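User: Predict the structure for this protein chain, please.
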Amino acid sequence: MSYLPYQDTTVSVAKSMAKTIEALEEIGFTKIAQISDDGRRYVVAEHKGATFTFEANIDNIKSVLQSHKQYRIPDLQEKAERVAWRILFNRVKSSVDSLKYQVEELAEVFGGHLSFNQDGQQLYLANVIAEQIENGNLQSNGFPGMPRLSAPESRHET
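Assistant: Here is the predicted structure, written as structure tokens:
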């Protein structure tokens, strides 16, 4: 059986959450909250008025750990939570590092986490784009109904 990254982490959920929040604060995120909804866990934060949602995807982690059959059921939930929060922290931290070194911009690293409340329903930009790709609607010129966008000059040299 292959080794799964973080499978042996002993870092507590509380420490990973705190480090994730600290990393977001370093780059100006505010109004940071930890939310638990229907068994799902999130960190929600604002940056210059925009709301970003970061999920610790515990259910998926639990399924993967369970498929490796090396974890007994009694500690599976706790282990999945530790692994999920550790992965989330490391994803956020590496993105923050990219921003600090100006390798990428905020929209590039966190754009998929941008969330909107539309008609009382939470929409995530990444999910909207993923659905358009899945339906074959996303082309190089956008997708149906997409507002016309004007692009700033590229900061990447070609």
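The first strand starts at residue 30 and ends at 37.
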